Amino acid sequence: MSILDHIEFAVGDAEVSRRFYELALAPLDIVRVITLGPERTRTGGTRHGFGKDGYPSLWIHDNEPPGAGTHIAFATRDRAIVDAFHRAALKAGGIDNGPPGVRTHYHEDYYAAYVLDPDGINVEVVCQYHCPD
């Protein structure tokens, strides 16, 4: 079981970010599970939940200032998925913040890629151990 249940953060425009995350997270098999309209949210903005197996573990919402320095990392067991995420995220409009590669300053098996989403949030996908080349 993961130690992480869910993550939520504010974005500037829920629809722009929804489109970004739908495309960027497709290589990880993470999909939009649910959308809640403004009448059902604390902030009065739109809220989108993404996840796997029907459980929304990543939430984004608007109508609140995006948080500076927000970072989210998704785990995978395959370096090819790190590469696919990076390509998909750039195609979806993300800004390269570190191409796929080994980050030896963390450890010898830390293979990751970083992309800034439409609000400047640093999104990472990482394969840390026993990842095929």
Automatic annotation (TrEMBL):
A Pfam match: Glyoxalase
Coiled-coil annotated residue ranges, if any: none
PROSITE patterns: VOC (PS51819)
Gene3D superfamilies: 2,3-Dihydroxybiphenyl 1,2-Dioxygenase, domain 1
Domain VOC: 3-128
PANTHER family: GLYOXALASE FAMILY PROTEIN (AFU_ORTHOLOGUE AFUA_5G14830) (PTHR35006)
Protein name: VOC family protein
